[in-house]
Amino acid sequence: MSVQIIVDGAAVEGRDGQTIAGVLLGAGRRTWRTAAGEQRGIFCGMGICQDCVVTVNGVEGVRACQRAACDGDVVEREGRA
Fold this sequence. Notes:
By secondary structure, the protein is mainly beta. Helix content is 9%, strand content 44%. The protein has 1 helix and 8 strands, in the order E-E-H-E-E-E-E-E-E. The strands form 2 sheets. A 5-stranded mixed beta sheet has the order 2-1-7-5-6, covered by helices on one side. Strands 4-3-8 form a 3-stranded mixed beta sheet, with no helix packed on it.
């Protein structure tokens, strides 16, 4: 079974049960956040470092490595100074 999420306005396909980070990595995206002028993505993969945070369905600060992707999720990049 598959899921489709919207990432910065573009549809991205993933597999049922994958985290948001897994869907993004599977689609070839290595970074999806900016912090201190640098591109960030997944680093620890277990929710500690917070490098992978995104906004999901309007909720900021969601750890992409911990949140299961649900069909129809709207994911947006976060930028932090």
